[in-house]
Amino acid sequence: MSRGEKSVKSSKIGRAASFTFYFLLFTFLSPLAWGGLSASESGGPSVRKAVFLSLLLPGAGEFYAGDIKSAKSLLGTEALIWTAHLGFREYGRWLREDHRAFARVHAGIDLRGKPDSYFDDIKFYASSYRYNELTFREDGPEARLYPSNAWEWDSQDSRQRYRSLRNNSILSYRCASYMIGAAVVNRIVSAINAARIVRKSKRQVRTANSSNGSVYDSLATKRPRHKEIQHHLVFVPSCLRGKPEGVQFSCSLLPPSRIILKVRW
What we know:
single chain; mainly alpha; two-stranded antiparallel sheet; 7 helices; rod-shaped
């Protein structure tokens, strides 16, 4: 197997490994956002809907849950990721066209019908004759050979220049594929964050309702005490019938425990 074929094969294996990694990451982390959910949840934002919206578009679940700041941050991150993806792909395409045109001029290659491994082979060997010689020595009769005049570089510097262009093109396409993985991770992060926001909101609502219920219970238990105080204060003026006629007593009772006693004469 030539060095070009090995490079192409390793590149395919790398892409497959990256896809597998991000798929497993998505599979195992997504349930974290769904943890603790029950089908009986009702009232307020739905955790399931928030997770679904975030997986569809990062930031949409946060916007649905009411966290506008987080929604803008995640949506901006998504826009940057896809901008970088398109930029890397376009730059890789430019470099691909450049290195092939450069090889046609400086190595005398014919671009028609050539596999991708061919363009890797020509960056490692000065000529097709040298390639055939070394490959046959390594693989024997099973070696894949090129015609003796398939290519021949005019100088070592030209081959190194082509190699640099070729490697940068491959790296740019690889970075573009990494951006797709980043978009997947961004969706998972957004889904988990949206679920957390909705659950936190639901806990706050339950806490507020529980606090209101305890206040109402407290007021209910204090009402008899207020009545007793009221009866006692109403009884005060009757005890003061011997006082001057200009003395007036007035009492106002404000819940839960404020009592105002006014005396005028």
